[in-house]
## 1
Amino acid sequence: MSVSVSTHVLDTATGRPAAGVKVELCLEREVLASAETGPDGRIGELAAGLEPGRYELVFWPPSPYFTKVELVVELADGHHHVPLLVSPYGCATYRGS
């Protein structure tokens, strides 16, 4: 079994991808992987070769209100894409494809 994770961040206030957003993948608060979104707001492969389990995704978005967004996700075998939509006063996420 193997798990991989990708993500992207969209700034819904501007309608544009959010470049330069730091994203960390953690297991029990230990950082396993860290990267910044590119000009298209994406991190194509934040981590791969992980065991299935419960992980934390930590985003540091460009919002004056949401300065840190933490998600706890249960990752089963396979690839998982976890996007973040952020604006100055709201954020949302979903399981992407």
Note: The radius of gyration is 13 Å.
## 2
Amino acid sequence: MTAKSDAPLNEGGSIILNGSVQAVLGIPGYTAYAAAKGGIRTMTRNLASEFAPRKIRVNQVTPGATRTPIWSLVVPTEDAVKELELRISQAIPLGRFNEADEVAKAALYLASDDSAIVSGTEIVVDGGATGSPLGAPIFRHG
């Protein structure tokens, strides 16, 4: 499949796909979701190649654990959400969840002219969970 020149995207535009660290973490019970997000990683790179002749950039934002209402689907109370966040944060090198606006800022960068030469890449917003996992608090000594 190749990008067609009559597609509704303007030359010089930006496409931003939403990934997930689930594509690389290997968490039990999330196989289908992880496979779908792995497909997004591949799609980002392929679409970047296909749209390059039209100067359309294709990139991906990949958030890690982010403070949003979705956690209430996993645990029943606000106190339980806070406890879960504390536990998960121990496996994040920077020691905390993302804020939603931090993920949005990565997407805004990719949509802006500041990233005019950036295409086919992924910005991972996860506090180092996938890039430097052994820096997480649970692995620190002293």
Note: The chain has a mean pLDDT of 93.
## 3
Amino acid sequence: MARKRRDARQQEQRNKKQQQRLIAGAGALILLTALVYFTWQGMGAGQALAPDAVPDPVLGNNEAVVEIVEYGDFGCSACKAWHNRGIREQVLDAFGEQVKFVWRDFPVITPQSPKAAEAGQCAGAQGQFWAYHDYLYEMAGGLDVAELKRTASAIDLEMDDFNACLDDGIMAAKVQSGAQEARRLGMRGTPAFTVNGQALAAPPSFDQLATYVLQASAQQ
């Protein structure tokens, strides 16, 4: 019980830290989130939003000199391991406004992965993608639909909207778009990364990403 309380406190601290990293672009993100919500509400049940109507989940500065894109899968043990190493947080802490992290879905590892990816995007429609992302990797007991909904409840999402989004497949086209892009780039597994559009051969270390940032900054 004590360990669960400690883990919950640590998760709360991580969520607060990530929210603090949403630099001045937070206002734009709120506007885009509202646009997604009202576009969805104006559609009929079961209609998926067009991919370009759904903003990518982002951490960092939208005007950064380095854009790091992760193509990930919530059912991927290697993705979970990369997340648990805290490299994203280390890079953001070290380089601040010089870096932007972007998430795109590439759900290819388990049969439950596509629906889990939709769930993440549904959380994103409420401005809580990263909290949902962290909870799935750190606390969730699986990726079945019931667990995806329990995760949404655990981070205090508005459940009627979340359930409707997930059950109606509102984010299915957005998820498929990320996967199609990853395949066009020649990616075969997860996690896969690009830095300023250049595909990396393997998940990067902190030192590798630091080198990219320093090189890009020197060219400005």
Note: The chain has ten helices and five strands.
## 4
Amino acid sequence: MNRSAVMRTDVVVELEDARLDALLSVPAAARGVVLFAHGSGSGRTSPRNVMVAHALEDAGLATLLVDLLTADEQADDARTGLLRFDIDLLGARVLGVSAWLRERPISSALALGYFGASTGAAAALYGASQLRETFAVVSRGGRPDLARDCLKAVRAPTLLIVGGNDVPILPLNEEACRLLGQSAQMEVIPGATHLFEEPGALEQVAHLSRDWFMNHLPPP
């Protein structure tokens, strides 16, 4: 798809407890929208998530890259590293942003998916466990163990993408895949580590994510 055909808008998502900065990108005749839940101190400008978002947009999917923490909260988290593990807070923000998307005329009719990275994957799974209108979830190098109590309530087809050399994270995802049940699938990218910085690794993440969402997000 021609990138010029994608409408990109910097937006502020107004929630009861926060104002969150976000980038909404909507291709012409979009068939779904994917909310990106960042993790481990990352945000909407994460180059890894931006690359995946562009691959989804090229396939005709809208994306919302959103900071789940306010600027003040990000500063606190940079000092303490605690808020990135507050899955109740981050999951509630995912649900709030999802409701915001449902209220926008440009995205209200689009099927909703979640893409979560690292601790953001736990927030995405928390959201999917609460919101039945979630059609698909993708986790990249995720920490689904942080949402372990929610996993059996997730009904959305879920893809867990893990690096083959991400030794601490692999067993956590294997256990999560078992708890998620038949609707879950795990893909291991050989030689990749947690950030998928190896040549070609992130491209594989983008392609797997694109195919998962295209196969599971119904057209409007």
Note: Residues 87-103 form the longest helix (17 residues).
